[in-house]
Amino acid sequence: MAAAKGDGAVGELELQAAIGFNGHVPCGLICHPDKEHILYPLGCTVVIQHLDTQKQSFLHGHTNNVSCVAVSRDGTYVASGQVTCIGFKADIILWDFPKQELLARLSLHEGKVEGLSFSPRGIYLVSLGGQDDGRVMVWDVSKREAVCGSPASPRSAGNANVVVCSSCRDEMFVTAGNFTIRVWELDRATKKIHPSECYTGQLKRIAVCVQMTNDDDDFYLGTTSGDVLKVNTSSKVVTACGPQKKKFSMGVTALLLLKTGGLIVGTGEGTVALCTGSDFQVKKRMRVEGGVTSLTCRGRDDQFFIGTNKCQMYRSAYATFKEELVAVCHTEAVNDIVFPAGHSDLFVTCSTNDIRVWYTPERWERLRITVPNVTCQAVEVTRDGMVILSAWNDGKIRAFVPATGEPMYEINNAHNLGVTAIAATSDCKQIISGGGDGQVRIWNIGEKTQKLREVLKEHRGAVSCIKINKNDKEGVTASLDGTCVIWDLVRYVRKQMILDNTLFKCVCYHPGEYQIITSGTDRKIVYWEVLDGSAIREVQGSLSSSISGMDITSDGVSFVTGGDDHLVKLWDYQEGAVTHVGVGHSGSITRLKICPANKFIVSVSADGAVLTWKYPSSG
Length: 619
Prior knowledge:
The chain has 2 domains: 21-197, Methylamine Dehydrogenase, Chain H; 336-614, 7 Propeller (Methylamine Dehydrogenase, Chain H).
C-alpha cells in the first residue's frame, strides 16, 4: 500500500524475488515433504520456492543470518535458527508452513543455533547451540516451550556440531561433533534427557553430518577425515567404516540415505558419490562446483538436490546421476548494479572475480564474465547497450561485449590504486573514471583506440560515485575525502566544490539537473544546488548507519537509499520523507537501482544477495 504524503504512515516494500542462497549453512537446502517446494536460507530470511513455477515467498523474522533450518516430517512446521553476537540470545523461530506465519520465538541459546531437528511426529523440536553455548535443548512444539536441556558433549570431548532425531521414536535423538557421538533418550515423566556415549575404539573422528536409517537400527556419520561411520543405535558401537583405501578428499560434508539402502555422499571438494555395501564402495560419482553442504530428496528416490558452498544448487536423477545446475548467485559481496538504458528485463551486477548479467522475469543468469583473482568495483552499460564497462581493483578498465561477454579492450594502469567508479557519456565516446588515488580521468573511446583525454585532480580520497548530466556537459563526482565536485566537462575544470563532514558514498542528479542529492557515512541525505553548491535541505537518512547506495526515479518524484542498516528506503523527493521500507537484507546494502519502467527496485548487498522489490503504486 502507498503511504499518503504527510500522514506519517510508512508502507512496507513487497519483496518480489531473491537471487541468492547461503550455501554455507549445513543442510540448509531442504525439499519440503509436499514434493512441490524447496526451502533455503538467504541472509536473515528463509526462502520458500515452488519447484515448478519458481514462485517465491519469504519467512521474515530473524535479526541476523539464518544458521540452520528444519522441516517437520508432515511438513506442517518449519524451524529456523540464527547467529547473533556473543552473549546475546540466538532466536529459534517456529513457523506454520501452510500459512507461512510466525508461531513462536524460542530464545534460550546464546551466540548461535548450530542445528535443529523435529521428532518423527513433530511433537518435539531438538536444538543444538553453537560453540559458545554448547547445550542441547528439547522443545514442546504444541506448547512452544522448553522441556529440558543439557550440555551437548562431555567436558573431555569437543563441541557437538550436528543433531538428528530418530525416525521412529519421538524420545530419541543423536548428537555428534568433535570426538563425541551421543544417543539421547528423553524421559517424559522427569523431563530430563539422558545421553549414552558411543564407542568408537581407536577411531578418533570429527563428525560434520549425520543420517538416521528409517528403522532406527543404525545411523551414519560423515567425518572430516573423509570416511563414513556406521553406528548401531542399540549397542552404541561403530559397525562399519569406509571407504578404507581411498577416502573422500576434503571430508564428507553431507549424506543422503536412500530407501533402496544406498548412501549418497557429498564431499568438501565437490564430489557427489553413490556408495553401497558395508565398505561404502563408490558405484557412481559426479562433480559440482564448490564443497557440498546439502543433499535433499524430493520425497521419492528418483530426484535429489545438491547445495554447495559456492552458493549453487543442482538437481540430479538417481538413474542418470548427472548434475543439472538450477540456481546460481554471487558468492561474495555485490559491489554495483546497473540497468541498460530503457531496459528493465536485464540488469548487470559485479563482484569479486566476475560480472553477471541477469534476466529479471526468470531471475536467471544470462551471462557470466569471469576475471580471476581481481574484484570488479563498479560497472556501467553504455547508452547504446553495446558495451559493458567495468572498473577493477587491479587498476584496469575492462570493456566487454554484452551479448557474449567477450573482451573488447582493456585500459591498463587507468588508476594507480585501483579503479573505483566509472561512467560513460550518452554519446558513448567518452569514459569518466575515478580511482583510489582520488583522480578523475577522462578517456576518448574510438573503435580501435582508447586515449587519455584529461586528468582532473581535486579529490584527495577514493572516488566513490560518478554521475553525468544528460547533455554530457557537466558531471559530479563524490569522494571519500568529504568532497563532491561538479565538473565542467567541456572545459575540464571545476565548477563547484561541495564540502561536508562525511565520507561521500553516493550522489544523484535530480532529473531536472538543478539539484543533486548526496549521502555517506554521516547518515544524512543532503540536497544541493548545482548552480552555486549551496545546501538547501538536510534530512536524517538513517539513525545509526552509513548510506552506501542511492537512486532516483526518472520523473524525480521518489528516490531510494540503502546502507549498513540493511533497509531499503523509498523517499518522497519533495517532502524529504520515507514512504516505504523494505526489510530482507542481512548484509550491508552496497548499491540499489530503480528499474527504468519504475516497476521494481533491485538492491544488492555485502552478503551476495540480489533482492527485487515491487515499486509501490501511487494509488
